[in-house]
Amino acid sequence: MNTENLQIQIKTFFGLEQILAEEVKKLGGKNVDIKNRAVNCEGDLGFLYKINYSLRTALKILIPVFEFKAFNQHQFYNKLSQFEWEQFLDVDQTFAIDATVNSETFKHSQFVTLKMKDAIVDYFQDKFKKRPNIETKNPDIKFHLHIDRELVTISMDSSGDPLFKRGYRKEQGEAPINEVLASGMLQLAGWDGKGNFLDPMCGSGTLLIEAAMIAMDLPAQIFRRRFAFQNWNNYDAELFSKIKEVRINRVKEFNGKIVGYDIDTRMLNAARVNIEAAEMEDVIEVKKQNFFDSKKELFPLLMVFNPPYDERISINDDDFYKKVGDTFKTHYPNTLAWLISSDLEAVKKIGLRPSRKIKLFNGKLETRFLQYEMYEGTKKIHKLDN
Questions:
Q1: What is the pTM of this model?
Q2: Where is the THUMP domain (predicted)?
């Protein structure tokens, strides 16, 4: 593997590609290229360590190592069984394979995964009379198999566990928002740690914790114990240690307030457990408060929240969203508020025209991330470009 000029593919969620590309550029990525649910770039080994440790909107970071065309399963197996697997996998290490398949020829990802596993094991058996073991839960080496029609790409997964697993979530609510999606929403909303932040329906606290991490410039994976690249034969522990030290030295003090409301005591307790796990008790305040009875207490204020919607938590949608709109208009003048919802009919009951609408997915649910601008003394909402 040429460690000076790695071709890197970073996976993300739909709608967050631009945010991810900006993050990658800030960290020094070269030839940044936006794809569908992914960003491609180039960098050296140190850069690979840095983006795994720091990126907020990345799901996994892949290094393509082998590409070929296969028109049937025999070609697929033969190509794989001729590849020099010992470059990337030691016979005493365990491995696992993730697969994404979009092909008429290879229809079942499970089948091609088994074929690839057989090719790797047979290769080692023939050459070393010994075989590496499969370990799906916690493998030493993780390969990613991608098939697009006839084009097969094998990549090394440098992250291991998906990067939304930050390590601070000990408790979760009814419908927790994914950490990567939460961070992406905050960045789309323009949160940069200047001013104050409110999540008026905070659930188990994910948006609050991600907001605090952005405000303090804490690396996204500061709590993670292990990355897959630490099992690679070219792993440079000293370099990784130095990169972590430089990133930690950039952490800054935050002087604003980050506040969460919820009416459910159980949720507030879960949020407190997670906030403590993230070592954020001094930065984040949560309290039992019904948003509909609240008034604006923080100036200036950015509000971002994930209200209950659709099949996740049942609410009386029309009444609920009307109350959201009434609270915005009556109690939150001069405020920028964003909310995410999959119920596009019900949100019309808010009674304000959103100034921005961004399509995102929360799991499999198609949603809109909506921006509302409340101005004092007027109900007129200025129309911004989408």
A1: 0.94
A2: 47-158
